[in-house]
Amino acid sequence: MKKRSEAYLAKKAAKRAASQAVRAQSPILSDSLRKDRPSWTRATKYFVGTLIVGTVGFVASVYQIAGGPPWPVAPVFVPGFPSSGHAFDVPFTVTNKSALFSLRHLEILCGFEKVKTDAKSGVQQLSITASDGKATLGPLESTSYTCPVKRMFSFAGATKFEEATISFLTKYDSHLPWGDRTQSQSDFFTLNTNTVPPQWTIGKPIR
Question: pTM higher than 0.70 for the full model?
Fold first, then answer.
């Protein structure tokens, strides 16, 4: 009976030792299998990372060398120097910031959000055409446009503008293979009547 008990215990101990050996070897086998697996995940991450870095580098190079982005962008408007004459005689410089794409058939509309004179005359929420759509603005090219206010309105009895806010609505073709005619709106420009002479500034006044 004693011998049978010893044999049973010995057999049980052997099974326990074998089970522990298997558990100890499992991580090694698992690591070995992981090493033998194809590294497509790492390759994909490397490819995507390289592509992103390459794209960013290309765009940065174009900006640095050419001076603008290699895709179509909306024209940018900047007011000219103030004049002692009619406020709307001041030309606005419009620039195509794209280094590669022209703005063809460029149409510009002056949008009057509000214009008020000291004679209580004025206009608001009105647009008039400054360019008829025949012009082309090449890459990184600039030109000037003036809102034809005096040709359209007389403002009888007025001696000065008390308030004026305008923006420019543009329509153009950039010749992208998938694009139709594009439309964009510039920043708002407000006539600062507290300066001598009054000057156009970007943005709306704080009320």
Answer: no
